[in-house]
Amino acid sequence: MTIPAVMRALVGFAAAAAVTVAASAQAYAQSSMPIVRDAEIEALVRDYARPIFKAAGLSSGIDIILINDSSFNAFVAGRRMFINTGALMQAETPNEIIGVIAHEAGHLAGGHQERLRDQIARAQTMAIVTGLLGIGAIAAGAAANSRELAQAGGGLAIGGGEAARRSLLGYQRTEETTADRSAVTYLEATGQSTKGMLKTFGRFQNALSLSGTRVDPYQVSHPMPRERIANLEALATSSKYYDKVDPPALQLRHDMMRAKIAVFTQGQSASARLFRKDPKGLASQYGDAMATYLYGNLKSALKKADALVKAQPKNPYFHELRGDVLMKSNRPAEAVEAYRSAVRLDPVKSGILRISLGQALISTGDPASLKKAVTEINSALERDRENTMGYRYLAQAYGQLGDIPEAELATAEGYFYAGGYQDAKIFAMRAQTKMKRGSPGWVRAQDIINFKIPKKKG
User: Which of 22, 195, 354, 372 has CB 3.0 to 4.6 Å from 28, enough for a Cys bridge?
Assistant: First the structure.
């Protein structure tokens, strides 16, 4: 007997459909999960997570991955935390998302994934043993010509799997409650409110009530929202930080993130709907500028981007938007200067912005800019090794410079990190034949050639 997919070693904030999450970047790159890469959103979420991770005693090396999904959910797998863009957009305050991150940090710090695997193994053993006992009873009933004994054996076989499943679901609900309490501890330690967590659980409860669905609390892997609120409300409201609000600057960054996600995922008017109560605010202006860039007149989009830069000249993402508009307007030389400003002002030195700069340098077409593009993109990939788009532009730059071996190696790297192992090996072999044996490029090509392709699970 097997434990259903919902029992796999995956723990998360909301009760959601089961997802099988790969543990490596290459694996999830070739999975069906739509990964979102954005320098601004990644920087903001990392700022949310940093103090929580410190309070939870989590060392560096926890990656946060953004998933393009409209549902409010987050989960952890391995050393990675996955957050849906739907959660980021629906959360009205930073505190709500910080509460989600604190909950997931509770799973990571508590080692819940590892213990869940042990529980799955025990549940599988229970199901198998009970099933064998049932089969034995069926056989004994048949041998003794006892219909009653055979029927009892059949019930035992079926009931054993159900008992194992309920036991595991009960264990998961306990771990979710533990993660909720850990989240409160981390929020208290970092001087932040728990109000956002309660608001989120209230959102789940309202959605459940509006759906009219009746849920058996013993058939789900998470406690019911009302139960979670009851468990935490007294503890949360007793905190001296309960009524503390997010700093205005952080709230503005959060609103601008929501505007960006709304425009890119829900269409031209989504940001205007989101901020209809503050149509002249900076977040609303940001959303309008991006909507104009994506769907409207580029000349108008550039004026709006310029207005944003004038309002916040040190905001790297306003310069990034200006560069995006100029690139779409086929003005790469001007885009280079906009992206350079974005890179210079970026406090976290995101590889994504450097790759955009590299793309603009390539588009200018002159050899000197191509060499600068190679430098910029290689610098970006040192910080963001798994950025497949970076390898595509790097291969293009090398190709235009006539350095075919490096272009083929960059193409191999891109395929490798995208999970296209067979194509990666083909291009690595092509690159290696043109490289000096033992050189760094030759060695890297050999690593790709020697890589053992993971077997697909049935």
Answer: 22
Q: Are 37 and 50 in contact (CB under 8 A)?
A: no
pTM: 0.78
Claim to verify: residue 210 and residue 307 sit in the same structural domain? no
Beta bridge partners of 66: 36, 83
**What's the pLDDT score for residue 4?**
30
- Judgement on whether residues 364 and 391 belong to the same structural domain of the protein: yes
Using alpha carbons, select from 13, 23, 250, 187 the residue that is nearest to residue 117: 23
44-47 long-range CB contacts below 8 Å, 24 or more apart?
44/253, 44/254, 44/257, 45/83, 45/88, 45/97, 45/101, 46/348, 47/250
Tell me the mean pLDDT in the region 106-118: 62
Residue 29 has pLDDT above 60, yes or no: no
Which residues, at least 6 apart from 36, have a Cβ–Cβ distance to it below 8 Å? 66, 67, 68, 85
Side by side, the strands of the sheet bearing 63-67 are 11-12, 74-77, 80-84, 63-67, 35-36
Domain membership of residue 282 as a residue range: 248-420
* pLDDT surpasses 70 at 40: yes
